[in-house]
Amino acid sequence: MNSVTDTYLLLRAFVDELARCGMQAACTSPGSRCAPLVLSLAREPRLECFSHVDERCSGFFALGLAKASGLPVAVTCTSGTAAAELLPAAIEAREARVPLLLLTADRPPELRENGAGQAIDQLKLFGDAAKWFFEVGSHDATEERLRWMRTLAARAYWTTLEGRPGVVHLNFPLREPLVSDEPLPADLSGRAEGAPYVRRAAVRASTDAEPLRELLASSTRGVMVVGRHERATAGDALALGRAAGAFCSAAGWPLLADPLSGARRGDAAIAHYDALLREQGVAANKQPDLVVRVGDLPVSTPLRMWLAGLVDARQVALDPEGAWQDPAAVLSDSLAIDPTAAISALQGAPAPTEENWLEGWRQLDELAAAALHGILGDGELSEPAVAAELGVLLPEDATLFVASSMPVRDIETFWPAREDPPRVLCNRGANGIDGTVSSAFGAAAAHDGPTVLLIGDVALAHDIGGLLAAGRLGLKLTIVLLDNGGGGIFDFLPISRTEMARGAGAEGAGPGGGDIYTRHIATPTGLDFARAASLYGLSHERVADFHGFRAALERALAHEHSSIIEVRGERAANVALHARMWDAVSRAISPSTGAATPPA
Is the whole-model pTM more than 0.90? Predict the structure, then answer.
């Protein structure tokens, strides 16, 4: 038996074992050295294989697919810088706790560090972003080695999921020849009846709610904060949202839930906490004595700052994976318990809540909502208005993927409380904008309902190659593009005020003219996205008002192909609009007492 046949026998057993363990999808990209891995994955009928031209897009597509499905996705690529292209997705997966299995092809040891082409140091290439790294040696396909290969596959699969989900990196040095026409003999090394070679039972988080129950008994001003919990399956997120809403309603607690949690539902949900907590009077007078925190930290800066200032309140984190989400060092308890089970077990637990504690929050929320609506209304379409409209218009079976930077902040600030919210996903592990288009297409591949991407012009330009997935993979994604001529979030930061005040002008701006801030920080792309849509085979429609947006979204959701709905805006106008909204909320709320006053 020649060596190439051995290679394919071993890889066939490896891939077969992944499928037996439960893997359903893999992403491939082209190359010579990776051909045995690519062909082995693509020939496995139980795996849906998604072909990508760009390794970076492939990694982020797999990330979105794994994020939406909750299952590990395999990614393979050829050697050299192709493998390095997976690093951004690996970092995001590590930070967001998403299971990924990275299978990189490599030159064998005799072709390393001696001038051979396409050979770089791939050993532990992803550093601490990977939970586990292993270099897979080349072997003869003996019965013993086939068993070992199956054990390796099972170990890799279960390791991506157990404890804190994340990245496993296996490096495969492959020798030529890399392709063979020889038929492979039957493989009888697997367990009977398609069972995995090694089963590893998941370590279940504790469901003991007694420590939490004791804290509740001494609290009269409790608050529950639910941050990003998107790594759970859609069903798990729904269960958590319902449990949190039911508990807070019964206990009389305000529920401050990031839309990424799926828990902004029920009559205890305070949808406009981001606007309210900008007011010093509210922040000071609505101080709890107990905060129960679930999931990752919310996106909202005012909410984070408020939590950081609650040094006298007991703050308890519920995280079954024991992750540390406490940059302000204010947590008093970190309980590695399952939040859904624990919160459900608290139904009916004594909670001697202060009279009108929740009602006071509700009144403020209603006034804030009215003040914001008075500014947004049905007037000119804006970035906040688009976020609010999506929160109302998208059906329950939809998935909204949101880009980092301003889009996710607008979703948190203007997303309403609903009994049937769509699922909201975002690459908020490392908070970057890279790979957003590819991740959204990956989420679309895992989801039967409509998938919508809310994204800015810079983030779309950054991953514009991800649009290839629409035609090459036959996937449908509705892209709502907010084109405001650059990175709009920077206009809210001190750097914009500093540079604009300095009046830098053209001095030092370099080729292309324009002031230093605009050219080097805001970075408008100047792209005509209608042409980009045409290039990648997507339909394109530009809208300017509420009626046009609603009609375009309805058409796009009914289409069978991907499309871009473009909303034009101006960065300076967006900053001014936000200032008017915060002023309107301030006038509707007494800044000194946090009590409601009639709107001006």
Answer: yes
